[in-house]
């Protein structure tokens, strides 16, 4: 059995990604209510109770809303770095000590035949990090919630078979939108979110021969649209000779509907 995954939910209202191999299964973030998370798992035919653990990227509510409920209800191991654990104190309720594990940024944890590498991103949280999953020569790289994609990040995720890649906003929509200037400035900053165009520019440096699937993730509900994100990314990539639909495919993600569970 190969590396499989589903983007269960992605967007400003909640984020969760499911990843499995033949012997391990992990949830990355639990940014929706416990009931909503249960429903998402049912839609992909998987059982939350059988998870090997939950990996936490950072403490913002759209990534941890259901974390405490799931941890307590199903007695699941939770993995986060020390600063994120400290930042979550008081936000997720009591989690038993024996369920709390430290996964430091920039390290690799091995679970059977699955290696999970954590790497830091640039976001206005305590110590935000994302993950690359490596299994039997296949790689899945997850990167959202970052204001920019550094060379160091690119080195970790380069030539993944599949990417879940932030394409948060259209800059013009954001600038003309109703958000207060303070929020616009935060989103556009180096600790905010990556725009459609900047996502595509970063992709140019990490797409490799192995890359077959790119999922556009964490789209703003107010400052982006699926069609616009896809078109912007396609056009920017095409300007440098990257042809979607031939070299690789682009996929949408959704705030409430999981992507089909696929193997890479």
Automatic annotation (TrEMBL):
Q: Which Gene3D superfamilies match?
A: Ribonuclease Z/Hydroxyacylglutathione hydrolase-like
Domain (Metallo-beta-lactamase): residue spans on this chain: 13-218
Q: Which Pfam families match?
A: Lactamase_B_2 (PF12706)
Q: Do you know which InterPro entries this protein is assigned to? A: Metallo-B-lactamas, RibonucZ/Hydroxyglut_hydro, WalJ/YycJ, WalJ/YycJ-like
The lineage's top-level taxon is: Bacteria
Q: Which PANTHER family match?
A: EXODEOXYRIBONUCLEASE WALJ, METALLO-HYDROLASE YYCJ-RELATED
Query: Could you tell me what this protein is called?
Result: MBL fold metallo-hydrolase
């Amino acid at each position: 059995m190969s590396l499989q995954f589903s983007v269960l939910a992605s967007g400003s209202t909640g984020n969760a990604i499911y990843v499995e191999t033949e012997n391990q299964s992990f949830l990355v973030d639990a940014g929706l209510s416990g009931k909503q998370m249960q429903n998402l798992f049912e839609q992909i035919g998987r059982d939350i109770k059988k998870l090997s653990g939950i990996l936490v990227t950072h403490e913002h509510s759209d990534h941890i809303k259901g974390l405490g409920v799931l941890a307590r209800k199903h007695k699941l191991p939770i993995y986060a770095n020390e600063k994120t654990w400290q930042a979550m104190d008081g936000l997720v309720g009591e989690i038993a000590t024996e369920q709390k594990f430290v996964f430091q940024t920039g390290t690799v944890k091995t679970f059977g035949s699955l290696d999970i590498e954590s790497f830091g991103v640039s976001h206005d949280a305590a110590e935000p990090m994302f993950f690359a999953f490596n299994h039997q020569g296949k790689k899945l790289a997850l990167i959202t919630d970052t204001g920019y994609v550094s060379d160091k990040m690119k080195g970790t995720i380069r030539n993944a078979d599949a990417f879940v890649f932030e394409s948060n906003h259209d800059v013009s929509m954001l600038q003309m939108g109703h958000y207060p200037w303070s929020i616009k400035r935060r989103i556009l900053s180096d600790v905010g979110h990556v725009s459609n165009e900047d996502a595509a520019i970063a992709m140019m440096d990490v797409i490799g021969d192995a890359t077959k699937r790119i999922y556009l993730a964490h789209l703003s509900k107010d400052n982006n649209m699926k069609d616009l994100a896809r078109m912007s990314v396609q056009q920017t990539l095409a300007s440098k000779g990257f042809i979607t639909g031939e070299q690789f495919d682009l996929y949408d993600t959704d705030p409430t509907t999981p992507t089909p569970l696929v193997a890479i």
